[in-house]
């Protein structure tokens, strides 16, 4: 059996690829990629001759079986995404699981990552972070996800398209209009832009086009400050405690959940007490 290589590729600037990655791509028998048109440009730039095989979300079930058969027959394969690291908000998880189940060797060839690239230059806390990738598209589900995550003491990393970036920032603003965010676009390219400020200021920069809605976006959300002392709410009733958070611009559902977390109670118990059920 051969080796399945997971190869990191540039996220914008074609120079951001390692010597090892180029060497692997030149020597493997096959390259599995999301979009052959995108990978062809990289291969042409570095004179990589390996044949390309399409591997994406819509054909991964069939192609996983095919690629595993090829690996078992001694064909060496490199898996790449259109940009950055395979499997990180990109296809490949099922292939790696299948390869490991068949005792096929899997090697990672590190490379760039858009989320960490934006985090390094954002000026937001970087020691603890949570990668969320792409959020749900439906507003209700997206808001529920953010309401849960934005009260963690961890910088959040989100990928977003230019068509939805403003809507996602508005959702963040609904939850906490005093939260700092950072928006990165065109990372590693000529017109790279990374802007960090309060969410309402960032939205105004979209409105006046100082941040164009062009290119793929990374949104970073500063984590909630961890409370040093929780004794402040001990003399409050449940109703008073929930009302306090609502007055701090938190949605009632999120406020109830937050009170449950702080008091180590079940959410439905806090809900019943607050609503006098």
UniProtKB/TrEMBL annotation:
<dbReference type="InterPro" id="IPR035996">
    <property type="entry name" value="4pyrrol_Methylase_sf"/>
</dbReference>
<dbReference type="InterPro" id="IPR018063">
    <property type="entry name" value="SAM_MeTrfase_RsmI_CS"/>
</dbReference>
<keyword id="KW-0949">S-adenosyl-L-methionine</keyword>
<dbReference type="InterPro" id="IPR014776">
    <property type="entry name" value="4pyrrole_Mease_sub2"/>
</dbReference>
<feature type="domain" description="Tetrapyrrole methylase">
    <location>
        <begin position="4"/>
        <end position="196"/>
    </location>
</feature>
<keyword id="KW-0808">Transferase</keyword>
<dbReference type="InterPro" id="IPR008189">
    <property type="entry name" value="rRNA_ssu_MeTfrase_I"/>
</dbReference>
<dbReference type="InterPro" id="IPR014777">
    <property type="entry name" value="4pyrrole_Mease_sub1"/>
</dbReference>
<keyword id="KW-0698">rRNA processing</keyword>
<dbReference type="Pfam" id="PF00590">
    <property type="entry name" value="TP_methylase"/>
</dbReference>
<comment type="function">
    <text>Catalyzes the 2'-O-methylation of the ribose of cytidine 1402 (C1402) in 16S rRNA.</text>
</comment>
<dbReference type="InterPro" id="IPR000878">
    <property type="entry name" value="4pyrrol_Mease"/>
</dbReference>
<dbReference type="GO" id="GO:0005737">
    <property type="term" value="C:cytoplasm"/>
</dbReference>
<comment type="similarity">
    <text>Belongs to the methyltransferase superfamily. RsmI family.</text>
</comment>
<keyword id="KW-0963">Cytoplasm</keyword>
<protein>
    <recommendedName>
        <fullName>Ribosomal RNA small subunit methyltransferase I</fullName>
        <ecNumber>2.1.1.198</ecNumber>
    </recommendedName>
</protein>
<keyword id="KW-0489">Methyltransferase</keyword>
<dbReference type="GO" id="GO:0070677">
    <property type="term" value="F:rRNA (cytosine-2'-O-)-methyltransferase activity"/>
</dbReference>
């Amino acid at each position: 059996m051969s080796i399945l290589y997971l190869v990191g590729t540039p996220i914008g600037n074609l120079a951001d690829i390692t010597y090892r990655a180029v060497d692997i791509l030149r020597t493997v028998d096959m390259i599995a990629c999301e979009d052959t048109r995108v990978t062809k440009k990289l291969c042409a730039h570095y004179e990589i001759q390996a044949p390309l095989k399409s591997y994406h979300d819509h054909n991964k079930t069939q192609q996983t079986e095919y690629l595993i058969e090829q690996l078992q027959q001694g064909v060496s394969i490199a898996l790449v995404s259109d940009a950055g690291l395979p499997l990180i908000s990109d296809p490949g998880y099922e292939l790696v699981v299948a390869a490991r189940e068949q005792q096929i060797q899997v090697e990672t060839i590190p490379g760039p990552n858009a989320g960490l690239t934006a985090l390094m230059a954002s000026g937001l806390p970087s020691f603890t972070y949570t990668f969320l990738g792409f959020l749900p598209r439906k507003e209700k589900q997206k808001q529920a996800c953010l309401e849960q995550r934005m009260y963690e003491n961890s910088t959040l990393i989100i990928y977003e398209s230019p068509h939805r970036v403003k809507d996602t920032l508005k959702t963040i603003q609904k939850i906490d209009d005093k939260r700092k965010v950072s928006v990165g676009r065109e990372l590693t390219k000529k017109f790279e832009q990374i802007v960090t400020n309060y969410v309402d200021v960032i939205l105004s920069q979209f409105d006046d086009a100082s941040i164009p809605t062009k290119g793929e976006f990374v949104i970073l959300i500063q984590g909630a400050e961890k409370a040093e002392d929780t004794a402040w709410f001990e003399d409050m009733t449940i109703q008073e405690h929930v009302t306090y958070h609502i007055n701090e611009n938190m949605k009632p559902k999120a406020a109830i959940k937050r009170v449950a977390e702080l008091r180590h109670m079940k959410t439905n118990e806090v809900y019943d007490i607050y609503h006098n059920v």
